[in-house]
Amino acid sequence: MSYLPYAVAAWLFVVGLYGIVTSRNMVHLVICLAVLQSSTYVLLLAIGYRTGAAAPIFADIPVGTPAVDPVVQALMLTDIVVEVAVVALILALVVQVHKRHGVIDPDKLRDLKG
Amino acid sequence: MGALTALPVALPLLVAALLAGLNHVIKRRAALFVTIAASLATLWCCLELYRGCLANTLVYWFGGWQPRQGIALGISFAIDPIGAGLAALAALLVLAALLFSSKYFDTIGNLYHVLMLVFLAAMCGFALTGDLFNLFVFFELMSAAAYGLCGYKTEDPAPVQGAFNFAVTNTAGAYFVLTGIGLVYARTGALNMAQIGRALAHGTGDALVVGAFTLIACGFLVKAAVVPFHFWLADAHAVAPAPVCILFSGVMVELGLYAVARVYWTIFSGALGASEPALRAIFAALGAFTALAGAAMCFSQRNLKRLLAFSTISHMGVMVIGFGLLNPEGLAGTALYVLGHAGAKGGLFLCAGIVLHRCQSVDERELKLKLAPMPFTALAFLCGAAALAGTPFSGIAAGAILMHEGALRVGYGWMAWIVVVSGCVTSGAVFRFVARTYAGWGSEESENAAEGRIEDRPDTKEGHNHTSAVMWIPAVALVAGGLLMGMLPNLQSATLAAAVRFEDRSGYARRVLDGVPLVTQASFGGKRFDGVDAIITIFAGIALALGYLLWARARRALHAIALPLRMVRNLHSGHVGDYVTWLTFGVATFGLLGLLFLRS
Questions:
Q1: Per the CB < 8 Å rule, is B133 touching A75?
Q2: Is A63 helix (H, G, I), strand (E, B) or coil?
Q3: Tens-binned pLDDT, residue by residue, of chain B (600 aa)
Q4: Residue B586 forms contact with A (CB below 8 Å)
Q5: Where are the alpha helices (DSSP H) in B203-275?
Q6: Residues ≥6 apart with Cβ < 8 Å to B543
Q7: SS3 letters for B459-471?
Q8: What is the domain-level CATH number for residue A19?
Q9: C-alpha dihedral over B19, B21, B27, B32, to 10 degrees?
Q10: Alpha-carbon gap, residue B120 to B236, rounded angstroms
Q11: Model ipTM?
Q12: What is the pTM (predicted TM-score) of this model?
């Protein structure tokens, strides 16, 4: 088993967080949130992976053939669906922020201080 | 009972989908009627489930996918009194919010009702589910509906910014949870909480288990608004419509803590049980810090909604200590505290809504003497503040005494002082608001004090001269509920029995996976209320408020803490990047402490 996918997942997680923290543009910030999320895709797929195993489609493979874990793939799919909704909602909020404030730099929005 | 189990989730979701589909056809009044009927029906279902699970935990497998030999492939709801009680609380608060908003807004689209119902369905599912991934999905659904409700007034600048901060912080928290769930699945190959708990109990608390616990607990603590994850909460409350605030403060935030408790007691208590004292110390420190920082921030606000938001943070700190005692008394106390707090805080937020509806502002300075023609509102505020301080017979007092009992058992007697300080400062802030706005007390000199101004925007176009009874009834009912809930006979014993069952990991696993009945007995023989504590808290609260307003020397004494307070205030920058930095810092610290002290 290779550690590479776990390293990639950790890297994406940290890079996503770094992007959110330092972002000067809210659209960029939301995309960084999506990068942070894609680390969970890599993590879940890596957890279910088995070297040399077939895809988990049990229709045309002989009984007893090793297959990768279908559960994590289902989790990942659900994860994508959930996040499409959330990212779309946050992007819609960014559009509204731009309409009301005229800027999308989080540094310039200081309505809610203290 | 089987068919009823899924209804608290299915019914509001179906009605919401129907209303969304008929959005352009259906009249506003009809939509309101359907929504209120749906939330009433949900409330009834939750109460029936509560009654049904008193004797034994209800387990329902969707699609009949029963577990075989202790291995669960299907998804289950596992309903115990604490989960069902929280679902019922959510339904009750949604009902109160809907009644209030029926006369509160001048114009509100039908989609508001759709979002309310989705929010309700997600909260019910979150409280009832027995599956870890399902918990995450309901968490996200609940969050998405909450973002929508928070930023519902998209025509104003502040709500969209507040909702954005709320959404980004909480979504980042949700990914921490999901990563933790992935790690747990990697170790156990299971998603059912009972099955995971059983598998983990065979091993020890190694780095992977501690890491997974850190990620899941911290992710949920973001929702629970525990310092340093709390920054989003004040922004979201200051900008959300008042009826939505009662849902945020009354039940959504508490559900974050519920998830930590549920996950700890069903999954991690076996593997981490050996290092319970260290974990208790970590939670106590987190809670104490949250309670004190929240109280200080609360007293230094002049926007009433933001003031109440920080008061919620302070009370969450107390609840974290209560759960963190890791014994049944602590958990039962926390459960009652949640109920009492929901009543008091929900009532106070609705009163704030009434003030906003009348006067177009909730700024304490601008409202000076403006409440004089509204003595009834002032009285409701005073009752709410008293309930928040924990008068005898209030839900908060009933919970506090149980928590105290639990604290004494593990040598944490000092937590009573945290409860007193939190209650006294947060109620004192409300007393100060009433004294200034109703009686006009407070000299001009205090204008320079450490109170900050936040732009507040009314939820309606213009002020009103009249407050409808439909708005009064939920406000008064909630305040009265919070104030008098403790009079119910047997309340503390029943909650204690529920908490004992909640904390029985192996019994829960046997019930869910093997179908063995789980029967618990517990009764609380201690004192039901501590009158002395309550009187100290209330009088200290009043003294704090009046001293601050009327006595220059007391004000100057408070100025001694002005500098650290200003530094803490400056951390609340309204900048989402700062919030996520603090979030990361909090998770890293928790994880480091976990690796040092929780590993076995």
A1: yes
A2: coil
A3: 677 899 999 999 999 999 999 988 888 889 999 999 999 999 999 999 999 998 889 999 998 899 988 889 899 999 999 999 999 999 999 999 999 999 888 777 888 999 999 999 999 999 999 999 999 999 999 999 999 999 888 888 888 889 999 999 999 999 999 999 999 999 999 999 999 999 999 888 889 999 999 999 999 999 999 989 999 999 998 889 999 999 999 999 999 999 999 999 999 999 998 899 999 999 999 999 999 999 999 988 888 999 999 999 999 999 999 999 999 999 999 999 999 999 999 999 999 999 998 888 888 888 888 888 888 999 999 999 999 998 888 999 999 999 999 999 999 989 989 999 999 999 999 999 998 888 888 765 554 444 454 555 666 766 777 778 888 999 999 999 999 998 888 888 999 999 999 999 999 999 999 988 877 777 777 777 777 777 888 888 888 888 887 777 777 777 777 778 888 888 888 889 999 999 999 999 999 999 999 887
A4: no
A5: 207-223, 231-239, 242-247, 253-263, 269-272
A6: B428
A7: CCCCCCCCCCHHH
A8: 1.10.287.3510
A9: 10
A10: 18
A11: 0.95
A12: 0.94
Instruction: Show the CA angle centred on residue B587, arms to residues B586 and B593, nearest 5°.
Output: 90
DSSP B412-444: -TTHHHHHHHHHHHHHHHHHHHHHHHHS--S-G
Q: What angle do CA A102, A103, A108 make, to 5 degrees?
A: 125
At B523, is the secondary structure helix, strand, or coil?
Answer: coil
Distance between CA atoms of B354 and B379, rounded to whole angstroms? 13
Distance CA B343, CA B354 (A): 16
* A112 and B570 Cβ atoms separated by less than 8 Å: no
B587 inside 8 A of chain A by CB: no
Interface residues on A facing B, Cβ-Cβ cutoff 8 A: 13, 17, 20-23, 26, 29-30, 33, 36-37, 39-40, 43-44, 47, 69, 71-72, 75, 78-79, 82, 85-86, 89-90, 93-94, 96-97, 100-101, 106-107, 109-114
Strands B76-79 vs B58-61: parallel, antiparallel or unpaired = antiparallel
**How many CA within 13 A on the CB side of residue B379?**
7
Please give the residue range of the domain that contains residue A93.
4-111
| Rounded Cα distance, B233 and B220, in Å | 14
Tell me whether residues B575 and A90 touch, CB distance under 8 A: no
Residues of B whose CB is below 8 A from A27: none
Q: What is the distance between the alpha carbons of residues B464 and B373, in angstroms, rounded to a whole number? A: 13
Beta strands in B55-193 (DSSP E): 58-61, 76-79
State whether residue B473 is helix, strand or coil: helix
Total domain count, chain A: 1
| Amino acid at position A110, single letter | R
Contact A111 B158 (CB under 8 A): yes
The first and second tokens of residue B370, run together, are 């403006």
- CA dist B369 → B155, B258, B298, B357 (Å): 30, 41, 21, 16
Kindly determine whether residue B137 and residue A44, on different chains, have CB atoms separated by under 8 Å.
no
DSSP B558-598: HHTTHHHHHHHHHH--S-HHHHHHHHHHHHHHHHHHHHHHT
